[in-house]
Amino acid sequence: MTATDEAGRASEEWEREPDPSDSLRTFGAVVQALREHAGISRTEFGTQVRFSRHTVESVEQGRRMPDASFVDRAEGVLGNTGALRRAARHLSRGEPGLAAWFRQWARLERVAVSLCTYECRLVPGLLQSEGYARAVFENSIPLLTDEQLEAQVAARLERQVLLAERPHVPFSFIVEEAVFRRGLGGREVMRGLFHHVLEHAVPRNVTLQVVPLGALYHACLDGPVQLLETPEGRRLAYSEGQQNGRLIVDAKEASLLHQRYDTLRSQALPPQESRDLLERLRGAL
């Protein structure tokens, strides 16, 4: 599949919820169909499999990985055909730690010939230290379970191998100074973050610029954005907000966002001045 094919498929899928995988949705739909065919309500079914009605609903809607005991009991209640046991062997959570609306973009990143990121909320994921990433996910609402938190952190760190594995691909980052002044996670976490960011901005293919607090002009006031170019020369963009993300494949709209980013490059501090600022901020901790 080419990057263009991936982009076309992604444009159809970006609105999905963050947690369910396709296999979980399919399994849940089969459970629901069998239950309804048997004329059993969710409450009655929950009593028979010894799980709450809420758990039954979560499984049927693909939001929860069913326990082995759930599968065995459901199999007994719904006819002992063996279908649920066989289907359960193929269940997966998709790509752990990555929201569904971001997964398509993450795949495109792996083949892109250039990547650009503007952030005004937090340090870009590709530059986050483990401690900072953990602090980000610890602030999630609703609170993540320990398992979910570890999966999120692991996925974020795994994604960062892009910087090491693709030394010939230019990575450009523009981040607001206010992001680095926010003491997320506390002083020690921020010290570790500054060290991590400064170290990862050393390679020649990585450019980091900071938009100073006193900037008089700003081309990206509409919010954060990520940009890339595919091997076929196609320009794409990605914009993320509260509980959603949008892959932008329209050539005209993507071109406009690339223009804004290019303008912001000239308005942000040059790379060396940006590095000097981050070193001063680190020294002030």
Describe what you observe in this structure.
- The protein has helices at 3-13, 22-37, 42-49, 53-60, 68-77, 83-88, 100-109, 130-138, 146-159, 161-165, 177-181, 187-200, 251-267, 271-283; strands spanning 114-119, 171-176, 206-211, 225-229, 235-241, 244-248.
- A six-stranded mixed β-sheet has the order 3-2-1-4-5-6, sandwiched between helices.
- Mean pLDDT is 88; it is low at 6-20.
- It has 285 residues and is an alpha/beta fold.
- The chain is elongated and about 70 Å long.
- A hairpin with a 2-residue loop joins strand 5 and strand 6 (244-248).
- The longest helix is centred in the C-terminal third of the chain and has 17 residues, at 251-267.
Chart the SSEs and their pairings.
Blueprint: H1 3-13, H2 22-37, H3 42-49, H4 53-60, H5 68-77, H6 83-88, H7 100-109, E1 114-119, H8 130-138, H9 146-159, H10 161-165, E2 171-176, H11 177-181, H12 187-200, E3 206-211, E4 225-229, E5 235-241, E6 244-248, H13 251-267, H14 271-283
Parallel strand pairs: 1-2, 2-3
Antiparallel strand pairs: 1-4, 4-5, 5-6
Helix pairs in contact: 1-7, 3-4, 8-9, 8-12, 12-14
Return the structural class.
Answer: alpha/beta
- Percent of residues in helices comes to 40-55%
H/E element string? HHHHHHHEHHHEHHEEEEHH
Broad shape: elongated
Q: What share of the residues does DSSP label as strand, in percent?
A: 5-15%
Mean pLDDT: 88
From the alpha-carbon coordinates, what is the Rg to the nearest angstrom?
23 Å
- Total helical segments: 14
